[in-house]
Write a structure and sequence with these properties.
By secondary structure, the protein is α/β, with parallel strands linked by helices. It has one domain: NAD(P)-binding Rossmann-like Domain (Rossmann fold). It is built from eight helices and seven strands. A seven-stranded parallel sheet has the order 3-2-1-4-5-6-7, sandwiched between helices. β2, α2 and β3 form a beta-alpha-beta unit. α1 runs parallel beside α2. It binds nicotinamide-adenine-dinucleotide.
Length: 265
């Protein structure tokens, strides 16, 4: 497509699926070599990266493990010599079971705070906040050691700003990612390492699979989406590309929303 990331190396957690996969492919199309860290196999992503003419490797990574996050960055350095860009896309909607958009639409109160178990809350925070922090920390340490600057992109959500009944763990976790992004952006502002976040609206990925066939869930989602459609993972990847590239060189600590018109009012 272009050469916005020519010669760069990008580490992408959650790159086996959805937004992370689309971002890996787009980055490869723009000239980057790709390192995917995911619990799930990323063979399909790597095939697409290679089809785009770039090299890719994967390392099975659980981002809730600090050692795994460090090993992922070490693997990138060992294979490609450096890390320029990191995307923390690994995330979960709920501790288990269907995504919260579906349970909320069904009018269920089981996921309201008064009814949830501490472990359920904790699990989502472990993956979505601690996992992102550990990913960012490993990336930032490497970028600082290189002294070359870099761009770290955290995948938050529009749920960082919108309180959704029945989705407290997810909303709190994404608000946490937003604040983590602001604090890290500030802490690293003078180093050349930029930290930004992307807050997608409802996006057609496995995370919300089947939503279009679930009338109440889809209508609820569209009621807060002025464009009245789901986003495509490629549209989220395009925002990541902007933040990864030098086109956003004067931007850090920010949250951008490819979200179909949410937050216009
Ligand atoms: N799809 C949406 O509507 C939407 C909207 C806003 C934000 N998001 C966020 O986008 C990010 C990507 O989600 P997606 O929609 O592509 O979902 P997805 O389920 O398609 O992809 C998530 C990936 O993360 C991986 N993963 C989960 N836990 C992990 C862990 N502990 N360690 C390593 N990998 C792990 C999964 O294996 C999967 O490959 C998530 O952070 C999600 O919260 C999604």
């Amino acid at each position: 497509m272009g050469n916005a990331l020519e010669g760069k190396v990008a580490v992408i957690t959650g790159g086996a699926s959805g937004i992370g996969q689309a971002t890996a492919v787009r980055f490869a199309e723009e000239g980057a070599d790709i390192v995917v860290g995911d619990l799930a196999p990323a063979d399909e992503t790597l095939r697409m990266v290679e089809k785009a003419g770039r090299r890719g490797i994967q390392l099975r990574t659980d981002t809730t493990s600090s050692d795994d996050c460090d090993a992922l960055v070490a693997a990138a350095v060992s294979e490609f010599g450096k890390v320029d860009v990191g995307v923390a896309s690994a995330g979960i909607a709920t501790a288990a079971g269907p995504s919260n958009v579906q349970t909320r639409a069904a009018g269920e109160r089981a996921t309201h705070v008064v009814n949830i178990a501490t472990e359920t809350f904790q699990r989502v925070l472990d993956v979505n906040v601690v996992g992102v922090m550990q990913t960012d920390r490993a990336l930032a340490r490497q970028m600082l050691e290189q002294g070359t600057g870099g761009s770290i992109i955290n995948i938050a959500s529009s749920a960082a700003r919108i309180p959704l009944a029945g989705a407290a763990p997810y909303c709190v976790s994404k608000a946490g990612v937003w604040m983590l992004t602001k604090v890290m952006g500030l802490e690293l502002a003078e180093t050349g390492v930029r930290v930004n976040a992307v807050g997608p609206g409802y996006t057609a990925t496995p995370m919300i699979a089947g939503i279009e066939d679930n009338r109440p869930a889809y209508e609820m989602a569209m009621s807060i989406t002025p464009m009245n459609r789901l986003g495509r993972p490629e549209e989220i990847a395009a925002t990541c590309l902007f933040l990864a590239s030098d086109e956003s060189s004067f931007m850090t600590g920010q949250l951008l929303h490819p979200a179909g018109g949410q937050f216009t009012g």
